[in-house]
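INFO batch 0412 | record 1 of 1 | parsing
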Amino acid sequence: MKIIDVCAFYSPQGGGVRTYVEQKLRIGPALGHEIVILAPGDEDAVIERGPGARIVTIKSPRFPLDRKYGYFAETAQLHAALDAEAPDFVEATSPWRSAGLVADWPGAAPRSLVMHADPLSAYAYRWLGNIFSRRTIDRQFSLFWEHLRRHSRKFDHVVCANGDLARRLDDGGVAHVTTIPMGVERGCFSPAHRDPALRARLLADCGLPESAALLLAVGRLAPEKRWPLVIDAVSLASQQTPIGLVMLGEGREQRAILRHIAGNPHVRLFAPERNRAAFAQIMASADALVHGCEAETFCMTAAEARASGIPVVVPDAGGAADHAAGGAGRTYAAADSNAAAAAILDVVRERPRPTASARTIDEHFRDLFAAYTICLDKRRKAA
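INFO prediction complete | emitting tokens
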């Protein structure tokens, strides 16, 4: 099966979508499928990634709010690229403009919308949640809901990676919603990578002895991640017991986050660790992962923590909450730093070592492509 991923969120500079794309390009051909990523770029280009895997970029403008990304500006240009590729199955992996472009493509191939973003949670609920109820906010953003409802009827699947988002979309009248969780890189994360010497060095970087607790926070430095809340929660909890927080991330909020840290020696912000083996060692050597974002569609870092055998402290909404189930961590009331501090103290005092368990990204793609195959077979039989 030839699968085209119309991926408006792809950027060579990084991010969770890029990681997902790289895994798709590796795993898809191994499962017998041809994978083509169709992405906006600075020029028209074809980047070969091995047999059955390539990235095709369409010369496109830069997105003005984040120039790391581009956007598909011309409908005819994108539709012509899809016509030329003649896919068996098409994915749109952004709920914004490209979802409409793929929905309106006149080709015969079945298609899916993969929800790599939860815009209402990331923006509308976060901005207005202290003022209005979610029902009121949904009414105020009725144009976006109608956009999703209208286009979902032209997709064979609207794929979510967590049940909370799937339920909200289904309740909102979005058609063909299905839940297919993502997963972690196979063979990368394990409690066996725990390194007491590395843990001691990271705590020393925070000006603390080995007897203190070491928390890890990982992700883009963006407003929706709520890193100030995480910093405040750790600071509150550390008034009762010594806690060091190591943050790994980069992004446009870096200066604001450094100002929020305000020279606290027990909170350190470092650049992301690009070496996967070294990152897996850091993850396994922490005492817990703490996260602030209630708008995650899956929360890969929490899944990686679970695979590493460390507990998670996460909001009780969005995809992150799934990874605290079964005694694997604590949830707290989303957007509440006091509740987060209490959850951190529970984990720090108990120091649980949950059983390492995590679904792999290979399982995710196996399930996803199996659903596509069934859909394509039904379409062909009907024809």
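INFO post-check: The chain has a mean pLDDT of 94.
INFO record closed
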